[in-house]
Amino acid sequence: MEYRRVARSGQVPDGLVRRFFVDEVEVAVARWDGRVHAMSNYCTHLDCLLSSGRATEEGLLCSCHGSVFDYESGEPILPPATQPIRVYPVREENGEIFVLLPGDAKEQDGPRRRRQAAQG
Question: Are 97 and 3 in contact (CB under 8 A)?
Fold first, then answer.
C-alpha cells in the first residue's frame, strides 16, 4: 500500500469537508484547526455522504441526521449513528494531501446497499 495524492492543500480549507476519489473509493477529506483528516465518505446510519456535512470542533457532522464522528477513531460521538466510520492515515506535504487506503477499501467502505448487493 502506498499513500495516494487526493488533493491540493488549498482545496480543503479549514472547517470544510470535500469529496475525492481514489480509484473507485470515495474519500471525505476534512480540515479542522489546521489538521487534515480522511475517512470513508458514507455515514454508517443511512449512507448519507459525509462530504455534504461540516467539520466541527466536536468532529465530522453528517448533514442528514446530525451524527458526529470522531476525526481520529471514526467512532460516533452523537447519534443516530451507532457504528464507526473508517478513518484513513493522511499526510500533507508540499501543498498536497495524501491518503493511505487499505487494500479492502473498495469492498468495505462504499455505501451499505452496494456491499449488500455484492454479497447477495
Answer: no
Note if the pTM is more than 0.90: no
Residue type at 116 in one-letter notation = Q
Distances (CA, A) of 67 to 6, 90, 116: 25, 22, 23
**Residue 56 and residue 30: Cα distance in Å, rounded?**
10
| Contacts of residue 91, Cβ cutoff 8 Å, sequence gap at least 6 | 3, 97, 98
CB atoms closer than 10 angstroms to residue 12: 22
The dihedral built from the CA positions of residue 79, 48, 72 and 86, taken in this order, carries a sign that is: positive
Within 10 angstroms of residue 36's Cβ, the number of other Cβ atoms is: 21
Model confidence over 21-49: pLDDT tens digits? 998 899 999 999 999 999 999 999 999 99
Distance CA 50, CA 40 (A): 8
